[in-house]
Amino acid sequence: MTQQARQLAELQKRIIASQCCPRLVRYCRKVAREKRAMFRDQKYWGKAVPSFGDPEAELVILGLAPAAHGANRTGRMFTGDRSGDFLFRALYQAGFASQPISVHRHDGLTLRNCYITAAVRWAPPKNKPTPREIEACLPFLEEELELLTRVRAVLALGSIAFNTYLRVVSMRAKLPPRSQMKFGHGLSYPLPNGLPRLFCSYHPSQQNTQTGRLTPQMFQSVLSEIKMFLRSDSGMAS
User: Fold this and answer.
1) Is the pTM higher than 0.90?
2) pLDDT number for residue 171
3) Within a domain: 152
4) Structural domain includes residue 238
5) Is 237 part of any domain?
6) How many domains does the chain have?
7) Which class for 10: exposed (0-12), middle (13-18), buried (19 or more C-beta within 10 A)?
8) What is the DSSP string of 86-109?
């Protein structure tokens, strides 16, 4: 294991042990005790969910937060719910994941040239963290991005992830006015000071995918654009 990988692993241990969002800690423990009927025989994770993926990744995918009966149950980001089913199938088809199905953190899934993290590390009630809870989790993301030294593209899933990422990198560079950087599916932005290019997608929530707001074709289009960017000379130079 490289020093970088060890540092990332140590960071994840600190995230798991953290209790910097007391409301979310209580909620996750409550959900883990009560469980959903269909998962009553399973042991829930019930605490902060670590990031995972390739420490040498060129692509970082930034989500919002774990799901109460998804990652809060399985212990791995986007694992065990409909959002994860959608995301990992797409990542597998694009070559970023070793398999199209994600059931549990020990199911053998690995990511290739890709790393998945989130703005908030605990499952929030109704999938709505407070601004203070997002603020409390910012140092985790900031440290993670510093350790992921080969990243050249960031994919923000949803507007909260988009805004959170811009908030973190605004500490490292003077960004264009926000009026010139609005969230929208399929949009992307070059950032100054050698920062990764920022790509946008609607979040693969069940609401978005079932209503057709986000289709597999739409998501694959964004992933294809990212792959082209990473292969291009401009990607190599960023």
Assistant:
1) yes
2) 86
3) yes
4) no
5) no
6) 1
7) exposed
8) HHHHHHHHTTSBS-S---STTS--
